[in-house]
Design brief:
Blueprint: E1 5-7, E2 15-16, E3 19-20, E4 24-28, E5 39-40, H1 48-53, H2 60-68, E6 78-81, E7 89-90, E8 93-94, E9 99-102, E10 113-114
Parallel strand pairs: 1-9, 4-6
Antiparallel strand pairs: 2-3, 4-5, 7-8, 9-10
Bound molecules: iron/sulfur cluster (2 copies).
One iron/sulfur cluster (SF4) binds near residues 9, 12, 22, 42 and 112.
Length: about 120
């Protein structure tokens, strides 16, 4: 199970103050050999329709913990990941102690990367 996640994809419907409010995310990159080969396929552009669609993937428990936390990251998603060449991938789950997803101006998942990817 992965540790806390930070994200800078400000245009994503799940983005919340450098954190991710999704309950579960999926990272693609089956044949990834470098960071830009990995993408957060859970990314959805912020709009009303996607906000409604995202309701089924909200980390309510994490949001509550984060609300009452004075420090630290309490809200972060479970990660399913296809990037089998990453050293943190164990049978499709991520076991990194912390994960960072980028980037600021992404308008679709193809422009998001797992910055923690490491062979
Ligand atoms: S891009 Fe991925 S990690 Fe970042 S907020 Fe969106 S769903 Fe969460
Ligand atoms: S750190 Fe590695 S295993 Fe974890 S989400 Fe990123 S690419 Fe996948």
């Amino acid at each position: 199970m992965n540790g806390p996640l930070t994200c800078s994809a400000t245009n994503c419907v799940h983005y919340a103050n450098n954190l991710c409010s999704a309950n579960k995310i999926h990272i693609s990159g089956l044949n990834a050999s470098i960071t830009p080969d990995t993408h957060c396929s859970t990314f959805q552009e912020k709009n009303l329709e996607n906000s409604l669609n995202s309701l089924s993937n909200i980390n309510l428990n994490g949001e509550l913990k984060q609300f009452f936390s004075s420090s630290g990251i309490e809200m972060y998603p479970e990660i399913e990941c296809d990037a089998k060449s990453c050293r943190y991938n164990q049978s499709g789950s991520c076991f990194a102690q912390s994960v960072n997803i980028i980037k600021n101006d992404a308008l679709n998942s193809n422009y998001t990367y797992c910055n923690t990817f490491c062979k």
